[in-house]
Amino acid sequence: MSLPAQIPLDLGHRTAMGCEDFLVAPSNADAVAWLDRWPSWPAPALTLFGPAGCGKTHLSQVWRARSHALVTRGDALESGLVPSLLAPANAVVVEDADLVVGKPEREEALFHLYNLAREQRGYLLLLSRKAPSRWRTKLPDLRSRIKGAPAVEVRPPDDALLAAVLVKLFADRQLRPGMEVITYLLARMERSLDFARRLVAALDHASLAAHRGVTVPLAREVLSDLQRSGSKTTL
Q1: What is the reported pLDDT for 147?
Q2: With a cut of 70, which residues of the chain have pLDDT below it?
Q3: Which of 136, 158, 177, 214 has the fewest CB atoms within 10 Å, i.e. is most exposed?
Q4: Does residue 144 share a domain with residue 171?
Q5: Cα–Cα separations (whole angstroms), residue 115 to 12, 37, 146, 148
Q6: What is the pLDDT of residue 2?
Q7: Number of neighbouring beta carbons within 10 Å of residue 87
Q8: Which of 153, 174, 196 is at the close of a domain?
Q9: Which of 43, 107, 128, 116 is nearest to 82 (CA)?
Q10: Count of structural domains, the chain
Q11: How far apart are CA 151 and CA 128, in angstroms?
């Protein structure tokens, strides 16, 4: 695979909502636009959905830096904990929010959390692999709440975004591999921003340990080791 000529390696470095440098691309632009609109959301909740490794967690971290939201998980929600979740900042990130589906206690807790956020003019950022329209919730009231709130898809990173992310991650570590290395990695790596971060960290470590630059042979070795390890990706 040769690196497509149209890949823009100057792809939009921007300071997203006053936080760290964040690369905005077609795959995440809609989600970034919605987060930029906060707190002027039309409902107390916003759902970001997409496959593992597409960048939902990173987006939520950017929003947390501005909102000071607490973080919980769908499989940790309990009705008794709802007031304490909203108390500090009136904002909550619920990772793996779709894990409440089919669990009456969790569905009830998310329903109460939504209602309390609405009463207190608070905000919920829900992260999910599935679109809310595909949640088969048992609680009709929760279904209507989630259906009435905006939901935005975060798509897997394309070659343009992955290339730009790799270049930026290498630059952050004062590494300047040739474009043949980027081309090699793009053709073979997992399509995940989390994997890109771990890959560059591993290449940096291997380069220092071997006292050699980041070349295609080194990239081949490190990528093979990472793929054999079967490391998990994050949201």
Answers
A1: 93
A2: 1-22, 230-235
A3: 136
A4: no
A5: 37, 21, 11, 13
A6: 37
A7: 11
A8: 153
A9: 116
A10: 2
A11: 10
Among left, alpha and beta (phi > 0; psi -120 to 50; other), residue 111 is: alpha
Q: Which CATH number belongs to the domain containing residue 221 in this structure?
A: 1.10.8.60
Q: Which residues pair with 127 in a beta bridge?
A: 48
Check whether residue 163 and residue 148 sit in a common domain: no
pLDDT of residue 10: 41
pTM for the full model? 0.80
Let me know if residue 7 belongs to a domain: no
Taking only Cα atoms into account, the Rg of the chain, rounded to an integer number of angstroms, comes to: 20
Give the pLDDT score at 193. 86
> Would strands 21-23 and 13-15 be described as parallel, antiparallel, or unpaired?
antiparallel
Identify the domain boundary among 116, 131, 153: 153
Residue 202, token pair as written in the block? 């591993």
The pLDDT of residue 103: 97
Structure tokens belonging to residue 62: 């950017």
Structure tokens at 179: 């474009």
Q: Read off the CATH number of the domain in which 94 is found.
A: 3.40.50.300
Residue 13 lies in a domain: no
Please check whether residues 33 and 143 belong to one and the same domain: yes
| Contacts of 184 by beta carbon, 8 Å cutoff, 6+ apart | 216, 219, 220
Predicted pLDDT of residue 1:
39
CB 64 within 8 A of CB 71: yes
**136 CB-contact burial (10 Å; exposed 0-12 / middle 13-18 / buried 19+):** exposed
Residues 152, 114: Cα–Cα separation, whole Å:
18
pLDDT of residue 21: 56
Residue 127 near residue 94 (C-beta atoms within 8 A)? yes
